[in-house]
Design a protein that fits this description.
Chain lengths: 347, 347
């Protein structure tokens, strides 16, 4: 973990070191994965040290999660917040076809979440801190994906914030980019869309249900415990099938527009072909965020399943035309421009 | 930049994309450094891509800065906050002897700071946003150190938070670690100590003075515009002089204890030898945070200056003894245990 210096560092009284931040850091260090072939040095020095195989590049992504914006402390269990924090970063690696190497976590927490007891006996849960349970969620998903928690930072904060950094290995020049789509390519998505938005809508109508879902990596809970498509991204990259890829964290309409912008192309998608999650609407499938499925373009030869997950062709890449929307939706009522309506801060 | 998805992504109305987050991101992207030999892909995809020279390892560090904890919006200029955010990460690279490669910035900001106008005509400053001026400070220091801003994330937040990730290259197995100090080594520091704490104390007594200090990389303002010892760390590593190193972000007493803990040794330092910054007290030099000088241990042959900065021997490494303090201060009054009193969160 890096240092937690502050401008307010003068004139404080002494205290036992083990009882504060250092104690928390020691606890995290004890739970994090050990150094291995690629993580030469993990938590405990000024920096971690990563070593790549000759011929590999390192993919790096950061994702910031903020209480009240990305999660609610009164809704989401700590396990869900931890799982979702890591899932966001893993999904970015998946979109590049990168193999996860190491994660770094910068956490800002109110003091009551860092070491005080939050579990309640009547929940049948042992009395463990919010941070401990957050780490259960994060480290459980990390282990399932072969990721070492190799460093980070810790600070006291009036609101809970978690910035996750993911690093991954990818063969030089072979990463899946947003910019490679070509006119004539098919447009594909993994899994189903709208499931996370539908689950969130259902849960938020009865917020007590949030706490009933325990840690799960089964993919059953698309909003609370999303499964990033790491294996599918790796497979796509190694098979050389995809010409461009992006993950659908901010909704299909937004991500497809990003992909078109970066590739200098346009897209037509068909409403009837979009795989809609159980209980979700077309609206949620088009614009709902946090599905963490992969959206990619490819020529011929795309299989119907990749690493156990369904793949659906939803449209095709067409030439961009000046002054026209990047994405056109073909529905029963005809053709209409599909305006990006996924999440955007500072709108 | 990575995605800024949110759980609150359903049921929003549409908006012009260029006016919100995407517009802000485009502005940052336009100002960030371009891809180069080591940064193969910068802002604009799901991940950045870094390429290392054969035989190099990648050092990675993250540092979280939070409004009200690490800076105050009513005290620090945006330029100072941006400069200090990057300086914290660069100082961690310096402590490992790593050469800076790329930075990643996750920013959570209240909407008024992201795009509204904060400059006042009576300050003689053009009307630019807080974010623009923050980037002035951050990118100015980045350019001076050859660092590309290669990615990050952006979100709306009730308080300003900035998490900086720094990556650096270091020859395999050659990084300066905290764990290499040997009994008999000398203990050295670069520059002077306590200057940042003294400057902060002087400024906070008259907070209007904060705004009078304009962007400066001269090292004149140790608290507002600290100069991380990147060149000195590189030189130390390449010369093979140091057996262990750490940066003094949290105060000498705290950092020396960390170094002793990781090396399994103890330390004796002499009060009269400690280089005290102009206007600072011994107390500030021992415990004041954010000096961002390097603390290292070495055998013989340490020069008096490294890359233009003074180096002072302040003590020596001795054997650890069970039940005794790791650090002993030798002063006029005799020997006393030096208890770590640097900054620690959650104490």
């Amino acid at each position: 973990m890096a240092k937690a210096g502050s401008v307010f560092s003068t004139g404080r009284t002494s205290g036992k070191l083990a009882s504060g931040e250092l104690g928390v850091l020691r606890g995290i260090r004890a739970r994090a994965g050990r150094a291995n072939g690629r993580v030469r040095l993990g938590i405990g020095d000024d920096c971690a040290l990563l070593r790549l195989k000759s011929g590999d590049e390192l993919a790096v992504t950061t994702d910031l999660s903020i209480e009240g914006r990305h999660f609610r402390l009164d809704w989401h269990t700590p396990e869900s917040v931890g799982h979702r924090t890591l899932a966001r970063g893993l999904s970015d690696l998946a979109a590049m076809g990168a193999e996860p190497v190491a994660a770094f976590l910068s956490l800002g927490l109110p003091a009551r979440l860092a070491g005080t007891r939050s579990g309640r006996a009547d929940e049948g849960v042992e009395s463990r801190s919010w941070l401990d349970r957050f780490l259960d969620g994060l480290l459980g998903l990390a282990e399932a994906n072969g990721v070492t928690l190799a460093g980070g930072d810790l600070a006291e904060s009036p609101v809970a914030v978690a910035d996750i950094v993911l690093t991954g290995a990818v063969a030089r020049g072979k990463a899946l980019l947003r910019s490679g789509a070509r006119v004539g390519d098919g447009i594909y998505v993994t899994g189903v869309l709208g499931a996370a938005a539908a689950e969130l809508a259902a849960l938020s109508a009865h917020p007590r249900r949030f706490a009933r879902v325990r840690n799960s990596g089964s993919g059953e809970f698309a909003h609370l415990f999303p499964v990033p498509r790491v294996a599918q991204g790796l497979r796509l990259r190694r098979a050389g099938l995809a010409t461009a890829a992006i993950d659908i964290s901010d909704g299909l309409s937004t991500e497809l527009e990003h992909l078109c912008d970066e590739s200098g192309v346009a897209a037509e998608i068909e409403a009837l072909r979009i795989p809609i999650g159980a209980g979700a609407t077309l609206e949620q499938a088009l614009h709902g965020g946090e599905d963490y499925e992969l959206l990619f373009t490819a020529g011929a030869g795309v299989p119907r399943r990749i690493e156990g997950v369904a793949v659906t062709r939803i449209g095709q890449v067409v030439a961009a035309r000046h002054g026209q929307a990047a994405v056109t939706l073909i529905a029963e009522g005809g053709r209409e421009p599909l305006i990006a309506r996924g999440w955007e801060h500072f709108r």
